[in-house]
Design brief:
Layout: E1 2-7, H1 18-28, E2 32-37, E3 41-43, E4 49-55, H2 64-73, E5 77-80, E6 86-89, H3 106-116, E7 120-122, H4 125-130, E8 148-151, H5 154-163, E9 168-172, E10 182-184, H6 192-200, E11 205-209, E12 218-224, E13 227-228, E14 230-231, E15 234-235, E16 237-241, E17 256-259, H7 264-271, H8 274-280, E18 284-290, E19 293-298, H9 305-312, H10 316-334, H11 340-344
Parallel strand pairs: 1-2, 1-6, 6-7
Antiparallel strand pairs: 2-4, 3-4, 4-5, 8-11, 9-10, 9-11, 12-13, 12-16, 12-18, 14-15, 16-17, 18-19
Length: 346
């Protein structure tokens, strides 16, 4: 199998990133892997997606660090959709906001070209294009979500603040990774208009119900093919604990990870996601759970899988690559009669 991973920029990848972990898992299983930045994508005169990608030879690697070093240090190789079996889109559009706006949706456009050439593209590109901001979350059943409004009108936000008994969350519609998230309560009310103005510079403002359980952190839970990712009775889930005084539990802003306790209410909660994820061809997603609510659904490049695998001693990366191998097998058997959106979650 030949599989290409699309990231924002190969040179900014780190050994602990989920994409590098998955690429190494595929390499260890004997597959030819390529890793390509968004700016290295292109379209050829004969109607194919092309790219200049980094790759490695058949040598074995003892660590993710040596694998990444060899990958980054390799000479770029031209590839095209004609020679690929799978294209795995793992770029984070929020990383390119106001820096490379053109790069946010480019992989989903080129991914659709690759689909026309018979490549299995994960997650399904048109669905990713529709999920490029947090509005996608609002298409899931209301029972899953905190009460939310999305607006640029300070008066509407003020009314929501009162409705929420003077405590709420403000954050931008587009973005991820815990950026520009604010708690507004009686102590910070004086700064509310300033916060709204700052967030509004980049678009719409999300005002959201404050969940008291958020102070205890959240749980990052991976779903594959619409169901919880599980290996030998262990779930791909991580408890993320907030740094003191910070509502955000994201690992890169100081949150700490520990093994999660996956219980029946949590499984019942994520079960509700399955129909929509299947409908949209979302192969691998990460959901963030606080109490009995979902705070976010990351369909682009959910992280922490490497840490979860180490902590649980479960080969989640192998399970993901095995599922992709199965998709290639089905594609080879059925050809064009199975479309990409079906294969994505088969």
């Amino acid at each position: 199998m030949k599989i290409a991973f699309i990231v924002n920029d190969v040179n900014t990848e780190k050994a602990g990133y989920t994409t590098i972990y998955l690429a190494l898992c595929a390499h260890k299983r004997g597959h030819k892997i390529y890793v390509c930045g968004v700016s290295e994508l292109g379209y050829s005169a004969d109607g194919r997606m092309i790219a200049n990608a980094k790759t490695v030879g058949e040598q074995q690697f003892k660590t993710k660090e040596t694998f990444l070093k060899a990958l980054v240090g390799s000479e770029p190789q031209p590839i095209s959709s004609r020679e690929l079996d799978v294209l795995f889109l793992r770029n984070d559009p929020s990383e390119d906001i106001n820096r490379r706006n053109w790069a946010q949706s480019a992989p989903y456009l080129f991914g659709q070209i690759a689909m026309e050439d018979g490549v299995i593209v994960l997650n399904h590109p048109p669905s990713l294009a529709n999920a490029i901001n947090k509005m996608y979350f609002q298409h899931f059943p209301e029972a899953l979500r905190p009460r939310t409004i999305i607006t640029r009108d300070p008066k509407e936000i003020e009314e929501f603040y009162i409705e929420q008994k003077q405590r709420m969350i403000l954050k931008p519609l587009q973005g991820s990774g815990g950026k520009n998230i604010f708690v507004v309560d009686k102590n910070s009310k004086a700064n509310m208009n300033q916060i709204i103005e700052a967030i509004s510079l980049d678009g719409f403002v999300i005002a959201q119900e404050y969940l008291p359980d958020a102070k205890n952190g959240d749980t990052r839970f991976f779903l594959m093919n619409g169901v919880p990712l599980e290996v030998k009775g262990k779930y791909a889930a991580l408890r993320r604990v907030n740094k003191d005084g910070d509502i955000r539990s994201n690992l890169h802003v100081g949150g700490k990870g520990e093994q999660a306790d996956v219980d029946r209410p949590m499984l019942d909660l994520v079960k509700i996601l399955k129909p929509k994820l299947i409908q949209d061809g979302m192969f691998l997603v990460g959901v963030d759970i606080v109490g009995n609510k979902l705070m976010e659904i990351n369909v682009f490049s959910p992280g922490a899988l490497n840490m979860i695998s180490t902590m649980t001693e479960a080969d989640f990366g192998g399970a993901i690559i095995q599922s992709i191998e199965d998709k290639v097998f089905y594609k080879n058997q059925y050809g064009r009669s199975l479309d990409n959106i079906t294969l994505a979650t088969l």
